[in-house]
Structures are given as C-alpha cells and as structure tokens.
Amino acid sequence: MNAYAYCMRHYADFSGRASRSEYWLFVLVFTIIYAVCFAIDYNMFWSGQMTVMPVSTIAYLANFIPGLAVLVRRLHDIGRSGWWLLISLVPVLGSIWLLVLLCSEGTYGPNQYGPDPNAHYATEPPPLRY
Fold first, then answer.
1. 41, 54 in Cβ contact below 8 A?
2. What is the pTM of this model?
3. E-only strand ranges, 16-124
4. N or C: which end of the chain has fewer CB within 10 A?
5. Residue 103 CB: number of other CB atoms within 10 A?
6. Is the predicted pLDDT of residue 88 greater than 70, yes or no?
7. Distance CA 2, CA 93 (A)
8. 39-83 pLDDT, tens digit each
9. What is the dihedral angle through the alpha carbons of 75, 64, 2, 29, rounded to the nearest 10 degrees?
10. Which residues contact 20 (CB under 8 A, 6 or more apart)?
11. Per-domain residue ranges for the chain?
C-alpha cells in the first residue's frame, strides 16, 4: 500500500527510478481498486447493456497519469528511456517485450536516471552473469 501511496504522491514525476516491487504493487492495488469500482458500476448501473460506467471511469482516469509515471520510472530502472513504452504499440510481440522489460531486474547502482532505488537493501553487488 505504501508503494501505491508513494506513486499517487508523485503522480506526475517522470524522473528517477522505480523498483520492481514499487511498480508491481502499484499495479496490484490499482487492479483491486478498479475491480471494486467495476463491481459497483455493475450493481448500480446495469440495465441490460452497460453503457454508463462512471465509477470505474473515474478510478481509471485518476490512476492513468500516476500509472504512466511509475511505468516510465520502472523503465528508467532497467536503463531504458521512457519512450520504450511505445514498443507496446507493436501488435502482440511489443506487449510481450514490454512485459519482459518490466519484469527484469534493474541496473545495480546509479545509472543515468538516478540512484538505485534498492540501494539501501543491497549489501554486496550481484554476481556477474556470463
């Protein structure tokens, strides 16, 4: 919940880095909130054809910019520009590649986008991979 609150406080901060846990906890909390809002819409506004979904629309719009900002910060953590999110526009493969990028481990230590968000957890550098 702290990761979600942090992302909402820094809702338009596209600079810096976000750890994997920060990004995925934001996604988890947003998914739960959106599911609850959708259930409210379904129970209150269902009329055979759901054309009005005000509660879930408001929830989505309130989380759109913070979600985009944490996505860009997550890409910064793996050493990629925020523009890499446009790879998802490539049908199927682009979304899969973006998911792989979002699940990958961030760069150890500071990079061009800022200090390591997990630096206070690290006691030694990770082993080299060949």
1. yes
2. 0.85
3. none
4. C
5. 12
6. yes
7. 32
8. 998 888 777 776 778 999 999 999 999 999 999 999 999 999 999
9. -100
10. 74, 77, 102, 103, 105, 106
11. 2-103
